Amino acid sequence: MAKINIGLNTEFSRSSDKPFEWAVTAAAGMGYKFIEPMVHFGRELMSEAGYFHTVSMFDDPYRIKEACDAAGLTISGLQAHGPLCRPEVHGEYIKLAIRVAGEIGVPVINTDEGKKAKWTTEEEDFVLIKYTLQEAAFVAERRGVKIGLEPHSQYSKTPEGLDRIYNLVASPAIGINLDTGNAYLAGQDVYAWLENVAPRLVHLHAKDISISHSAAERGKVTGTPVGCACGEGVLDWERIVRIVKEKCPRDIVFSVECGTPDQAAKSLECLSKLV
User: Fold this and answer.
1) How do residues 120-179 score in pLDDT, each as one tens digit?
2) Where are the alpha helices (DSSP H) in 167-229?
3) Fewer C-beta neighbours within 10 Å, C or N terminus of the chain?
4) pTM attached to this predicted model
5) Domain extents for the chain?
6) Which of 188, 60, 82 is closest to 128 using CA atoms?
7) For the CA atoms of 85, 60, 25, 3, what is the dihedral angle to 10 degrees?
8) CA distance linking residue 38 with residue 41, whole number of Å
């Protein structure tokens, strides 16, 4: 039976206009034991000024590790999203994210196929995704890092589409990071999808969707950056926990994706009672 740990994606601090180190300290203060930082390629003005939580991969990776170690937090994964179907954008980005993860002992990096180029066909997109993913897998395999493919965009919005991406490259480095909120908003049966990917699951984005958000966007979008507090939305977390415990062959971190510190605290309270 899989063990479930509860973590927090640093997206919760986006609304606070604070830097990465603040997010780490805040997560630990709430009682979280795991955290999922977001990394970016190059330099970004708001994070350099201390108003945003992402960390540049041009920084020493030990900036991430030492901040988390000092707060008593284990890093569950790195959020390293970018368009796999655009190698010129995500090719070097994802490989650097894997090298950063390998250097500081992070087991998973999470990504998706991203928004496609306007001029490419679907057939061409899948060739490009395969190219980017295979190059990333070569780097990940020798470092023991898993690539968590997430449902988020035009092709991964269905179980069949996500499986099609997963099956492009045969590599032990490739797994699934199911985002429960994205799956729900795409109009899918979250619980059936979770059961389908459970043997391949390496990470889980615990994202709940409010009733009003569901009414406004379900079936109209393929995902959303953050959700509401777990337990205050439409998803059955007791059922999700049961599926993961019974079906997953490895321990899994539920990385909460919500929009505010208050939602993060409520999510931890809700999930702690279930796991």
Assistant:
1) 999 999 999 999 999 999 999 999 999 999 999 999 999 999 999 999 999 999 999 999
2) 180-185, 190-197, 211-217
3) N
4) 0.97
5) 4-272
6) 82
7) 60
8) 10
